[in-house]
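Sample 1 of the test manifest.
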Amino acid sequence: MMSRKKKAVVLLSGGLDSATVMAMAVDEGFEIHAMSFSYGQRHSIELDCAAEQARTCAKEFKVVEIDLRAFGGSALTDEIEVPKHGSVEELPTDGIPVTYVPARNTIFLSYALAWAEVLGANTIFIGVNALDYSGYPDCRPEFITAYETMANLATVAGVQGQKLTLHTPLIDLTKAEIIKRGLDLGVDYAKTNSCYDPAPDGRACGHCDSCLLRLKGFADAGKKDPRKYVQ
Amino acid sequence: MMSRKKKAVVLLSGGLDSATVMAMAVDEGFEIHAMSFSYGQRHSIELDCAAEQARTCAKEFKVVEIDLRAFGGSALTDEIEVPKHGSVEELPTDGIPVTYVPARNTIFLSYALAWAEVLGANTIFIGVNALDYSGYPDCRPEFITAYETMANLATVAGVQGQKLTLHTPLIDLTKAEIIKRGLDLGVDYAKTNSCYDPAPDGRACGHCDSCLLRLKGFADAGKKDPRKYVQ
């Protein structure tokens, strides 16, 4: 018997945001086809987290190998040092972070688009967030809108009038709002990694941009982060 | 000393069209950074041709490994049989060919975009062609325009006002016009593969959609195709 659930491709990074997005997609009744990328990340904990999250929620989980290191240019994939700060107040407030990976979301969404077409899925979920500190151009609403327009011209499904939509349920939420929503939906945030530079045993550093924003989010939400930290 | 030439990323498939595009980009004075994809093609002759073309024209040649087979859905990457026809008149005139690969140009362009940003290149050349028989939605001008809009919102370079343009010099040319232009520029078409189903020794089949269009193009141009054919 065919499943009567609508299919959705969910981009899963192993982090807090995309884990929350997947829980929201489940809550909306979608059948989840989760996709992660192995792209020369310096640590594998993200993919371990993504796999563990997918195991409980997704019908299918696919890890696509891509080699973004070939292009260089990012602290997440290169030998550039991940910047550390004492507190969230010390984060730079403008400019592009060195952790920026060229065209990363564009590439990820393109694979999601290919998979969606093969699956006959009309929906892609991605956990981009335009608020908080970010500075990534490919997390802005105008990028998402332009991508959706392009995607509907790119595929046979689009040409045949089967409109694809990108769902970005976090785009206007604060980190605290995301966390509250996820906790309501039962997300286990112990199994999410946000840290750009985790210790060999998997504990988060607590001082990279991403750890600081996460910790502030939990503090603002009045919740305790179940993730293990080095200090 | 820095090169004073403008850099361009050129997508090279090993085929007739993109070899012509590269020659046009050289003719326009660009420094060529050529990019091909290893995507589970059933034969490697395309990549051999691309490498040989790049050797004479490009400053740099990169082959990116991607696994489109993971998604299935195309005669070029799957176990679906490549359709053969007796003549160009027998080609289907509407519909999407079974050789369609979901989101292929979207994925290829996304890698080109990443590389262009790292290189500081403002130009990507792609040999799409909207005329002749094709039926690929991601070869249409409206797709290219939408991709360019998206790309300029996706990157730091774009945000900082360094506009990226997609050059599609073949988009309105007939196959015969492409061939005449390429011959004027000295393209060696013996070193290009168009065949979807070449013989083990590399000769073209002469009966797939792509061979028939190529042969008609040479005939219309009044030129002889230097490519070796099975019959």
